[in-house]
Each structure stands twice: as structure tokens, then as C-alpha cells.
Design brief:
The structure holds two protein chains of two kinds. Chain A starts with a helix and ends with a helix. Chain A is mostly helical. Chain A contains 14 helices and no strands. In chain A, helix 6 packs antiparallel against helix 7 (about 155-170) and helix 8 crosses helix 9 (about 200-235). Chain A is globular. Chain A has helices at about 5-40, 50-55, 60-70, 75-90, 95-105, 115-150, 155-170, 170-185, 200-235, 240-245, 250-290, 295-305, 305-335, 335-340. Chain B is an all-alpha fold. Chain B folds into two domains: about 1-65, no CATH class; about 180-395, Orthogonal Bundle (MetI-like fold). Helices cover about 75% and strands about 0% of the residues of chain B. Chain B is built from 16 helices and no strands. Chain B has helices at about 1-30, 35, 40-65, 70-100, 105-110, 115-130, 135, 180-215, 215-230, 235-250, 255-285, 285-295, 300-310, 310-335, 345-355, 365-395. In chain B, helix 6 (about 115-130) crosses helix 8 (about 180-215). The longest helix of chain B has about 35 residues, at about 180-215. The two termini of chain B are about 45 Å apart. The chains are: A mainly alpha, B mainly alpha. At the A-B interface, helix 1, helix 7, helix 8, helix 11 and helix 12 of A face helix 3, helix 4, helix 9, helix 10 and helix 14 of B.
């Protein structure tokens, strides 16, 4: 039986599509279960939101009124689905702190108090920070990994290994303060506070984002660099690499043309995983630099127990984390040559 | 902007110098293979290394010769260089000591040890001593508000700016000695992290081995639960649960610290579970397990006498890494203000409270060193543990590439 090239491609597409759809469904299911978990965890609170807002000295009537306002008199399952449907439509409920503030001033709580309105601008700020970090960190660490593999066991390799191991094991705030000390206080090159506001020019915005982005780069580089190095070195023992070397190719060319394409799957995988890790790192770094992102909002809300905001931020972080892990998974499937060229 | 242009200029100059070096080397040695086969990037690397080395020596020279206020700029640089050399020397001496004292086995261990690993062991030993004997070493109590001593004495002991020689690192905002709190921090931060890691290993290890030996529905339920728990980033999940715990604990600060230990232990036990199960599954299929089962041994015997001894090496390495992770998580939580609660002294909280002093670094560098000491203490321990784990993995698995 003759198998044409066309049917092969079709076969490949259907296999990959099937796997990707499977993973997507699994990811959605995970997200659904995680949302239940977040909702259930918050409902473990002693008393309820109404008491949390009004404090200990509230009259029963006031508590009752707020409870009715927020729909707390309904069973948890109904409330969960209301929350979920709202969240999917972009309505994440109202912030306690903002509602409190609005009622205190006597203003109409209206649009300002909604969690979505609070999160939206900060979400883009955080995305900007993560984007800048990825743009610096990914090329830098892959290049470093290639160089470390090329000059393996040299002084450069050992130094890079020691340096990255130290930077990955330091807490984010230590790296942040060291960078502030040297690049903002002793040598005023970059601003130490990132007061980003809307309508800021790109250049200025970039300058203010650079220090937090550099800190995050230091945090994620180590893992990516080590994995790139390991993935390439793993391949260097294979016969086809030896062949290329015996042909008289330069070592750099052997690595870039022959080893790198086959090492791409694990590298892409680890890049996506580290971008997922950025999400956790962003929280501390945003607090240090007072960067108006979603991580800072999250920490502030945790401290004042603004439950709807905490829930919403948690859901967003979890969704991004699951999505990036899913991407890592799918990328490594797609870049697997055995799947790309089925027998 | 000009700074960036300067850096680019220096790098381009290095490239030119590298080319020159190769050319000159080839001419002088008459085409030795070392120079002939050197690629431009290698030559560039050599030149950059030399330039950085000269720059470091020159800056250190400036740091030793300049006087205030110019020297302030180099104070931390000098501190870093001297600290690095001091620790390197200490690690070297420690290794030398280990090579000459002890049993034949430990001597052999020290002979094969790289300097990074002996640095790690030495540092861990110091931390352990500090943590155990904190009460003896520290000049004051951790919660003691010193009577008759001003609050907010700046660190450095310089009377010109209000410092005091009795309190080398100054006092905090309510008049407690910062040096004592730094020493007690070793006890609290490291001790709590260690207890949390042990708890995480107890939970995760037990469940993981149970899932591996029993299999079936228990394995399925546990594995899927862990999958879901791991789908939430751990710091985010910890923060969410800490919000709830703080509502439960109310105004009892000690209780909140206890809840934090439980929360982080449970979150981290998922990672331990994964590893313990993976290792356990590989061991369960071995013949000696089959033999033990046929002998009629019970579950406890299987887990503790057959599986555990064969899973020690990977679990021990994981313990080191997990400890680092837990330690960093607790430090981050404390830094964010929801971790270890006052009045317990703790490094993360100290960094947050003292951070504003960093802005004085340009004119009073000693003042800025207090928050960095607390943050550096955290970093030093995790770096040390990582170095030791790296060496252990290298040794036990024979990762020789």
C-alpha cells in the first residue's frame, strides 16, 4: 500500500489535533475544579462576608441587610454558579473595600466598586511587566545556555553555573534590593519606584519597568539556562553530532544547526514553565517596586481581607498558570519529531 | 542613556581587543594551534574576563584608598569582595580540617568535595549553631524593648549621625536591638521552615508510599487531588489560605503562625507526594518486594523496611530543595506581611520594616546595611543548601555528563 505525503500530513494533523483537544479539555476541567476549590476555601470563613465588612459591633439588622444585598442568604451551590457565570462574563463582583469607602463618603458605589474595573488596568500593567521580562530573559538565557554547552566544564561554564544557582536561590526581594542599591541609589541609572500611570509614553514606561523586569530576569534565567545546557549536552553524544563534528564543522555550527533544533522541545517546555513561574515572582517584585500591577492589588486585598478581590486575583493567577502549563505541554507535543513524522 | 552607550562602547572595544589578541598571539607564537583555532568569541571572552577582573581590582583599590563621601559608593562593593574572600578562605580551611580530622570515610568525603560544597556545609553548620544557641549569643531578648534606649538608632554605631556603639546595628522603631533580633531570626525563620519541611515530608511521603504500594482507587484519588492542588501557583494559594487563616485566628498572632506552618506543609507535601510515589512505584515492582509480600509481611514492614531505605537518596536531595523552597516561601510571606507574626523576630519582616534605610546608602552606607543583612542571611542559607544538594546529586547519581 502506498501512503502519499498528503495522507501522512493529514494523519499527523488529526493525531496532534486530538491530543491538543484532549489537553485543552483537561485544562478546562482543572480550571473548573480549581474555581470550586477557591470558592469553597473562601466559604470556610467563620461568620460570613457581611460580618467581615461590618465588624464585631454590627447590629443584626444591618448584617441581615447586607447579607440580602450580596445574596448571601442563598445556598452555597447557587452562589457558586452565580459567581462562576459572572466571572466568565467578566463580572467579578464588588470590592468590599471600595464599597465600604463609597458608602462612607456617601457616594454612589456604582461602577467604581466593581472588582473588574479595579483589576483591568492593573492586569495590563502586569502583562507589560511579564512581557518585558520575557523579551529580556528568554533570548539571554538561551544564549547563555548555548554558550555554557559549547564551552562546557570551562571556567565560564562553572562561573555561569554558580552565578545562576545563587540568583535562583536568593529571595526575589533580596535581588530587588541589591539592584535598587547599585542601579538606583549608588549609581542613579534607573528609577527605584515604578509609578506607572495611564497615558504614559512607551519610553518612560519602559524605563520605569526595567528594574523590576531585570529582577525577574535574574530569577527565571537560571532554570532556563541550565535546562538549555542540559538539553544540548544530552544530544552531543549522539552519532549524528559526532558525524557533523568529524565532517570538520565548527563547534558553534554543530550546536546551532544540528543540536539546537532537536533540543527545542525541552527548551520550549522549560521556557513556558518559567513564564508560569513569573506569575508567582511578580507578586513580591511588584510590592518591592510599588508597581501598580495585579500582584500588589492581591497582597493589599489579602491584608484587608477584601474577599471578592482575593478570589478574582486568585482565579486570574490560576488561569494564567494553567494556560501556560498547557502551552508547555502542547508545545512539547507539537515539536516532537516522532509525532510530526508518524511512521 | 549615556551609561548604556558607555557599556556598548566598552564591549565593542573588547571585541576589537580580542581580535587584536588573537592576531598578536598568532604572530608571536608563530601560529600555535591554541591561537590559530581560537574563535573570535573565545578571544572576546578572555578580554572581557580580564577587563572585569581589572575593574574589580581597581574598584577595590579605590574602596580602600578614597575617603568619605566618595568612598560611600564603593562601601558595599568592598563588603561583597571581602565577604566573598572570607567565605572562600573559611570554606577552604573547613575542607582542610575535614581532610585531616575524622574517620577514614569522612576524610575521603572531604577529599572529593568541591569548594562550593564545603562552603555550603560550613555555612549550614554556622546557621545551625546560631539557631540552637541564639539565646546565649544574642545580647538582648528578641521581644525586649530596651528601657532608657532611644528607638530608631541608626545602624553603624557612628555617633555623628546618632548611632551608638552598644547597638552596632541600631534599634528598630519601638526600641529593640536589631542585632539580637537578627540572631533570633535564625532560630525562628530557619526553625519554622525546618519544622514545616519535616511536616510536609511526613504527609507527602506517607501518602506517596501508600499510593505506590496499595495502588487502585486510593492512588487515583490522591493523585488527582494532588494534580488539582498543584494547578494553583503555590505562593498564590498560600496567600489565599492565609487570608482565611487570619480570619480564623482573629487577633491571636501565635495561632496564625501555626496555621501558616500547616498551610505551607500541606501545599508543599503535594510535591513530595509526587516524588515519593514515583520513586515508590519503581521500587514496588522489584523482586524483593514480591518476596516480602509472599513471606506475608504487613504494610508497615513493606513501607519502612523495604521501600524507605531504598528511596533515601532521592528523598534526601529533595529534602534540601524543598527546605529551600519552604524557607523562601515563608520569607516571602513574612516580607509581604502575612507570614511569621510579631513579636517573633524574623528576617522577612525585618527586611520589610528596615527597607527604607537603603535609600540612605549614598551618604551613610552603614545605615543601609541592616535590611540587606537580613535579606542576605536568607539568601546565604538557600545558596549554601543548594550547593550541597547539587554536590549530593552529582555524587549519588553520578551525573557526570
Amino acid at each position: 500500500m502506498i501512503i502519499t505525503e498528503k495522507t501522512r500530513t493529514g494523519e499527523y494533523l488529526s493525531t496532534v489535533l486530538k491530543i491538543i483537544l484532549q489537553r485543552l479539555a483537561l485544562g478546562l476541567l482543572t480550571l473548573f475544579v480549581v474555581s470550586i476549590l477557591i470558592f469553597a476555601a473562601v466559604n470556610l470563613l467563620p461568620g460570613d462576608f457581611a460580618q467581615a465588612i461590618l465588624g464585631q459591633g454590627a447590629t443584626p439588622e444591618a448584617v441581615e441587610a447586607i447579607r440580602r444585598d450580596l445574596g448571601l442568604d442563598q445556598p452555597p451551590i447557587t452562589r457558586y454558579f452565580q459567581w462562576l457565570v459572572g466571572a466568565v462574563q467578566g463580572d467579578l463582583g464588588n470590592s468590599f473595600a471600595q464599597a465600604n469607602f463609597a458608602s462612607f463618603v456617601g457616594a454612589d458605589s456604582g461602577n467604581k466598586a466593581s472588582v473588574a474595573a479595579q483589576i483591568a488596568p492593573r492586569f495590563w500593567n502586569t502583562m507589560f511587566l511579564a512581557g518585558v521580562t520575557a523579551l529580556i530573559a528568554v533570548p539571554f538565557s538561551v544564549l547563555l545556555g548555548i554558550l555554557a554547552a559549547l564551552y562546557r566544564n570551562s571556567a565560564f561554564d562553572k562561573f555561569a553555573n554558580m552565578f545562576t544557582l545563587s540568583s535562583i536561590s536568593s529571595p526575589e526581594f533580596f535581588l530587588a534590593y541589591i539592584l535598587i542599591l547599585f542601579l538606583a541609589v549608588l549609581n542613579p541609572v534607573l528609577p527605584s519606584l515604578s509609578n506607572i500611570y495611564q497615558g504614559m509614553g512607551l519610553g518612560e514606561r519602559l524605563e520605569k519597568t526595567l528594574l523590576p523586569a531585570l529582577t525577574l530576569t535574574l530569577v527565571v534565567t537560571a532554570h532556563m539556562m541550565r535546562m538549555t545546557r542540559a538539553a544540548i549536552i544530552n544530544l552531543l553524544a549522539s552519532p549524528y553530532i559526532e558525524m557533523a563534528r568529524l565532517k570538520g564543522m565548527s563547534p558553534m555550527r554543530v550546536i546551532v544547526r544540528h543540536a539546537l533544533p532537536n533540543a527545542l522541545a525541552p527548551i520550549i517546555n522549560v521556557v513556558a514553565l518559567n513564564l508560569a513561574y513569573l506569575i508567582t515572582g511578580v507578586v513580591v517584585v511588584e510590592v518591592v517596586f510599588v508597581y501598580p500591577g495585579i500582584g500588589q492589588l492581591f497582597v493589599d486585598s489579602v491584608k484587608i481581607r477584601d474577599i471578592p478581590v482575593v478570589q478574582a486575583c486568585c482565579l486570574i493567577f490560576a488561569a494564567a498558570y494553567i494556560l501556560l502549563n498547557l502551552t508547555a505541554d502542547i508545545m512539547s507535543i507539537v515539536s516532537n519529531p516522532r509525532l510530526r513524522h508518524p511512521k | 542613556m549615556s551609561v548604556w552607550l558607555q557599556i556598548i562602547g566598552v564591549l565593542v572595544a573588547c571585541l576589537a581587543l580580542g581580535w587584536l589578541l588573537r592576531f598578536a598571539g598568532e604572530r608571536v607564537t608563530g601560529g600555535r594551534p591554541f591561537f590559530r583555532d581560537m574563535s573570535l568569541s573565545v578571544a572576546f571572552g578572555y578580554v572581557v574576563a580580564v577587563v572585569v577582573l581589572i575593574w574589580i581590582i581597581w574598584s577595590y583599590y579605590l574602596a580602600r584608598t578614597l575617603v568619605a563621601p566618595e568612598v560611600n559608593k564603593y562601601f558595599f562593593f568592598r563588603l561583597a569582595i571581602e565577604g566573598f574572600l572570607l567565605f572562600a578562605a573559611a570554606a577552604w580551611l573547613f575542607r582542610l580540617l575535614g581532610r585531616s580530622v575524622g574517620t577514614a570515610g569522612s576524610k575521603k568525603l572531604f577529599r572529593q568535595m568541591p569548594l562550593t560544597a564545603s562552603f555550603g556545609l560550613f555555612t549550614i553548620l554556622i546557621y545551625a549553631l546560631l539557631a540552637i544557641f541564639a539565646g546565649v549569643i544574642a545580647p538582648h531578648g528578641q521581644e525586649q524593648i530596651l528601657q532608657g534606649v532611644a528607638a530608631n538608632i541608626p545602624p553603624g554605631g557612628d555617633p555623628a549621625i546618632g548611632g551608638s556603639a552598644d547597638y552596632p546595628l541600631g534599634t528598630d522603631q519601638i526600641g529593640r536591638d536589631i542585632l539580637s533580633r537578627l540572631i533570633y531570626g535564625a532560630q525562628n525563620t530557619v526553625g519554622i521552615a525546618f519544622a514545616t519541611t519535616c511536616l510536609a515530608f511526613f504527609i507527602g511521603g506517607t501518602l506517596g508510599f501508600l499510593a505506590a504500594t496499595l495502588g487502585g482507587w486510593l492512588d487515583q484519588i490522591l493523585s488527582r487531588t494532588v494534580d488539582v492542588l498543584m494547578a494553583i501557583p503555590s505562593l498564590i494559594f498560600a496567600l489565599l489560605l492565609m487570608t482565611i487563616a487570619s480570619a480564623w485566628a482573629g487577633s491571636e498572632k501565635g495561632l496564625l503562625t501555626f496555621y501558616m506552618v500547616i498551610i505551607i506543609a500541606v501545599i508543599d507535601s503535594t510535591r513530595v507526594f509526587r516524588l515519593a510515589r514515583a520513586v515508590g512505584v519503581n521500587i514496588v515492582v522489584m523482586d524483593y518486594i514480591e518476596a516480602a509480600k509472599l513471606r506475608g509481611e504487613g504494610l508497615t514492614y513493606l513501607i519502612f523496611k523495604e521501600i524507605l531505605p531504598n528511596a533515601t537518596a532521592p528523598l534526601l536531595a529533595e529534602f534540601g530543595l524543598r527546605f529551600c523552597f519552604v524557607f523562601l516561601t515563608i520569607a516571602s510571606l513574612s516580607f509581604l506581611g502575612v507570614g511569621i507574626q510579631p513579636p517573633l523576630a524574623d528576617w522577612g519582616t525585618m527586611v520589610r520594616d528596615l527597607a527604607q534605610f537603603i535609600n540612605f546608602a549614598a551618604f551613610a552606607p552603614r545605615v543601609a546595611s541592616a535590611p540587606l543583612l537580613a535579606a542576605g542571611a536568607i539568601a546565604l542559607l538557600t545558596v549554601a543548601v543548594n550547593f550541597v544538594v547539587d554536590w549530593m546529586l552529582h555524587r549519588t547519581t553520578g551525573l557526570k555528563e
